[in-house]
Amino acid sequence: MVGYNASRGQYSGEVFLREVAKLRVEAGAKHLGIFDVDIYAKGLKFIFGIALIGGDFALISLKRLSFPEELLFERALKEAIHELGHTLGMTHCPRKDCVMSFSNSLQDVDAKNADFCEEHSAQLRLILGEG
């Protein structure tokens, strides 16, 4: 399969992101791919998701988010919002409760909300033309 790294037993998030980009549905729209395989990025052991800041494409992986299963939806929602936030031009937030904070572990995902902090909320309003 495309992007598989046999020595790691994982798939490249960057390669998957390029594959998602080939599935463009509508020009200018934001696209989210959802996968159930373990993914990584250069310099990291694994990632929950990936997006280009200001790009049109993002993806998340459910593989490491699904244990225990009852937390899967909440975790996936947070990571989807986070990665789509990147497509809107948002960067990581130092506030651990903001959905835009970087998650390096399930504890990090669980510690953040599915909401933007005040600063990122203001940025979102500007992006949407409401600010």
How would you describe the overall organization of this protein?
The chain is an alpha/beta fold and 131 residues long. It has one domain (4-127): 3-Layer(aba) Sandwich (Collagenase (Catalytic Domain)). It is 31% helix and 15% strand. It contains four helices and six strands; from the N terminus they run ββαββββααα. It has helices spanning 13-21, 72-87, 106-111, 118-127; strands at residues 4-5, 10-12, 31-35, 39-40, 49-51, 57-61. A three-stranded mixed sheet has the order 1-2-4. The chain has a three-stranded mixed sheet with strand order 3-6-5, sandwiched between helices. It is globular and about 45 Å long. The protein starts with a strand and ends with a helix. The mean pLDDT is 95.
CATH topology-level fold name: Collagenase (Catalytic Domain)
The secondary-structure element order is EEHEEEEHHH
Structural class: alpha/beta
Number-wise, the strands total: 6
Number of helices: 4
Q: What proportion of the residues form beta strands (DSSP E)?
A: 15-25%
Looking at how many chains there are and whether they match, the oligomeric state comes to single chain
The CATH superfamily name is Collagenase (Catalytic Domain)
The number of distinct structural domains comes to 1
- Side-by-side strand order of the widest sheet: 1-2-4
> What is the overall pLDDT average?
95
Distance between the termini: 44 Å
Shape-level CATH architecture: 3-Layer(aba) Sandwich
Q: Which CATH class is shown?
A: Alpha Beta
Largest sheet: 3 strands, mixed
| Shape label | globular
What Rg, in angstroms, do the CA atoms define?
A: 15 Å
